Amino acid sequence: MSVWETSSRPKVSTIFTIMTILPSLIYRTGIPQDDCNQCGKCSSGCPAARVLDLKPRQVVLMVQRGMIDELVRSSAIWECTQCHQCMERCPRGVTPFDVIIQLQNMAVKAGLPHPESLDQIFASIARTGAVQGPQEVFDSDFEGYRRSDLGLPELTGPRDMVAFRRAVEETSRW
Amino acid sequence: MVGLRYAFFLGCWIHSELYPLEMATREVLPRFGVELVDVPGFSCCGYPLRSMNVASMLYLSSRNIALAEAEGLDLFPLCNGCHASISEVKHILDNDPEIRGRINDELSIEGLRYRGTARIRHILQVLSEDVGAEKISASVDRRMRGFRVAPHYGCHAIRPSFVGRPEDAEDPKVLDGLVRAIGATVEYYPERLDCCGSSLGVADIEAALRVAGRKLQAISVNGFDAATTVCPFCYKMLDGRQDVAKKVVGDMGISVPVFYFMQLLGLAMGIEPRRLGLHLNQSPVDKAIAKMEAVVS
After folding, report:
1. Is pTM beyond 0.90 here?
2. How far is CA A160 from each of CA A128, A134, A164, B39, rounded to the nearest angstrom?
3. Residue of B12, B53, B109 lying closest to A130 (CB–CB)
4. Residue B34 pLDDT more than 90?
5. What distances in angstroms separate CA A29 from CA A23, B54, B168, B289, B295, one per listed residue?
6. Residue-level pLDDT at A12
7. ipTM score here?
8. In a domain, A100, yes or no
9. Which CATH class is domain B5-110?
10. CATH architecture of B132-296
């Protein structure tokens, strides 16, 4: 199945309004209705475009044509390496990276498929403050080391975990 | 040296597994009079949650800045990714009073407040501006003479330029200058700005390894003595995942000793490799260290 094929879920064009709920979060160009002239500098600099289906130029074109449903349901929007090259090199101030991030945010809000690891990362941060706790690491002889074995201090996370979790959960609903 | 006292922010990956980066930094920087303060209460910078909800990144980065500000300290995130997201969030909060107000409402739940007083410092700025190339050169011996190093800058050290990065987006030079300051030779290669692929790992680990493998291939074919980076994500992709990346791109000839820059600096200062966590590097660093030692013995 092509990554551009859509799944059979209800139409979600209405979640496009998420983009207007927090207008100043899209503080850069946001939706490049008029600014993009499809020159392709963004795709030529994209590391994901070399190995996968994501083409920033194509994403911007689809947004210009109102194909938001297709975009939020495609797995291609999750192939971004977040390298920021597309928006750095755009000669017209369009920000494909921001558009891709907004599409990802929209897909998550709409309950559409997204990488499972994101849910796990969110759960871990809400529970402990970090993506993961200190792990044991190994040298080439398979000898294991923990922070204390390496003379590293034990550090403490958020003081009031209840308050922290409340704030994290509240902002995640913005 | 006055005021070289920073709230030392490790971020999730350095704190939980990339110990050599923390070891080398804690070992080296105090020798240059930089005091690293462990502020209790830090959390993830929120960067990994950007894809779920930008607001989560806004909140988490803000609270870490607020914690440093409460201590009256500038914030020094050791991780390239954390530094970029925290800098970007600071840029938003300093330019958008409405978002700043909403974030401060949320921060009050934890008894915190964002004021915008703390500077966000990058390891490249600490080394090149606070310490300075001159002091660094004066502290190293001659073991790096003739040692050919490929710099790998890391995307988030050079972009997005509008929030202010320590390096130029198209022509980075700061890391190059530091490599020269320790007495080594900087090698140019066309793929020097290429991404390591790390963030792709969330959606497609094989593709991420392919990107890393190609980068390593580009460095390996040139026969450089080593590659160096200041980013934990790049370090993990190029060092820790080198073995699997070379299988993914089908080039078992790839062999690149990868050093976190603070490890190279520490070695040049004559610090014992284990104190810099070099026994935990997984790329073939031993042969590179032996080459350096042959110069001074």
Report:
1. yes
2. 11, 20, 6, 15
3. B12
4. yes
5. 11, 16, 22, 48, 54
6. 34
7. 0.94
8. yes
9. mainly alpha
10. 3-Layer(aba) Sandwich (3.40)
